[in-house]
Design goal:
CATH architecture: 3-Layer(aba) Sandwich
CATH topology: SMI1/KNR4-like
CATH class: Alpha Beta
Shape: globular
Distance between the termini: 25 Å
Radius of gyration: 14 Å
Structural class: alpha+beta
Largest sheet: 4 strands, antiparallel
Strand order of the largest sheet: 3-4-5-6
Number of strands: 6
Number of domains: 1
């Protein structure tokens, strides 16, 4: 679960900037996403999107609304990293939650780590041990 102090900061921010968050995700949408991707979504991610939907938290965190639908984008990522890419197995057990603005996807893997796949150099990097930690490192109120 995301730290309650961080949740309070986010809630205050969204009360002052309501357009920076979307509609909360439903349990039905979570179940559909898990079935479509054949994974259990990470607890931090579920907690976040069920509270805030697609939202800005220092970085854009995608949910299930087009055009940044995490299920659709995850399926596309899996195709892109399929066919023997060294990141293929991790992609199959992850959900895409955003990108760095240069097309490098942020994903949460089965361990709950937030990872980036660098498409130009075929490498990956763990950015944070959890979504909560990732948000904490990137979120600043304004």
């Amino acid at each position: 679960m995301i730290d309650q102090k961080l949740i309070k900061r986010l809630e205050k921010f969204y009360s002052e900037h309501p357009t920076m968050k979307g509609a909360p995700v439903t349990t039905e949408q979570i179940n559909e996403a898990e079935t479509a991707l054949n994974i259990n979504l990470p607890e931090d991610y579920v907690d976040f999107v069920c509270r805030f939907g697609e939202a800005y938290a220092g970085i854009d965190i995608y949910a299930f609304e087009d055009p940044r639908n995490s299920v659709k984008l995850t399926k596309e990522m899996r195709i892109a990293y399929g066919n023997g890419d060294i990141r293929e197995n991790e992609a199959l057990k992850s959900i895409l939650i955003g990108d760095d603005g240069a097309g490098n996807p942020f994903l949460i893997n089965e361990k709950g780590e937030v990872v980036i796949f660098y498409h130009d150099c075929d490498e990956r990097e763990v950015l944070a041990q959890s979504l909560g930690e990732f948000i904490e490192e990137n979120f600043e109120e304004w």
